Amino acid sequence: MDQQWRANFKRATVGKLLAMHFKDEKTKVNADALKLMTSLLRLFVTEAAMRAGRQAESEAVDVVDVAHLEKVLPQLLLDF
Known about the structure:
Elements: H1 11-19, H2 31-58, H3 66-79
Main location: nucleus
Organism: Petromyzon marinus (Sea lamprey)
Pfam families: CENP-X
C-alpha cells in the first residue's frame, strides 16, 4: 500500500457490539478487555484489507472489491 492506512474503532462502539452478544444483561466489559478487543479488531480489519489488496494486485486489478476479500477471508480466519 502506498498510503498509510489504519482502521479505527471507537471503544464505545466495540463495547456495544460485545454487549449485544452477552446472555446476561448485567455482564460488563472492563477497560483493559475493551482496549484489547479494539486492538484485535483493528489488527484483523487491517490485515484483511492488506490481504485483499495483495489479492487484487496478483490479479492485476487496480481496485479492491468484495470478491478479493472473499478470496482471502477463509485463510485469514484460519490464521487468526
